[in-house]
Amino acid sequence: MFIAYAWLNVDNQLYFVSKCLMESQAPYTVKKHLPTPPRDKVKILKEFEGEDESLRALDQLTYEQGFEDDGFGTLQNSLRSHPMALKGITPHLRPVSVYRVKDEAHLGDWDLVTEACRDLGISPNDAYACLVGRNR
Questions:
Q1: pLDDT value at 6 more than 70
Q2: CB-based burial of residue 26 (10 Å sphere; 0-12 exposed, 13-18 middle, 19+ buried)?
C-alpha cells in the first residue's frame, strides 16, 4: 500500500507533495532541501493499492492545482514557504518573482534567478538571501 501526502504552510496551502509506502516515516522526515513541518501540517491525502496509482494521483493534483513540480516533489509555491529551498536545488534555473522585503513592492518577474540577479545587481551566490520567491 502507498500513500500520497502533502506538507502545508502556515496558511494551510500545499507546498510539498510526494508518495511513499504506507508504513514509511517519509512524511515526517527532513528532505534534502526543505525542513520538516510540524506534524499537524503533514496531511495524508489518499491511500493507494499500487505505486502507479499514487503517481497518477500526484500528477493529477499538480495539474489541478496549477503547480509545477521541480523534480524533487516540491511544488512551485514552496519558495514562498521556505525560501531556503531556492539554495538547495539549482537556484539559477528557477523562475522568480521578486519583491522588496521591506515593503513587499513587486520589482518584477524573471524566467531565471540569474537574470534577476544580473538586472538587480545582486550576487548570484547571495540570491537566496536577497530574493523572496513567489508564485507567478
A1: yes
A2: middle
pLDDT of residue 94: 65
| Identity at 89, one-letter amino acid code | I
SS3 of 76, please?
coil
Q: Cell match 523572496: residue?
A: 132
Answer yes or no: are the C-beta atoms of 39 and 5 closer than 8 Å: no
In 3-state terms, the chain is what percent helix, strand and coil (to 5)? Answer: 35, 25, 40
Locate 5 and state its grid cell: 501526502
Query: pTM, whole model, 2 decimals?
Result: 0.51
Q: Are 22 and 2 in contact (CB under 8 A)?
A: yes
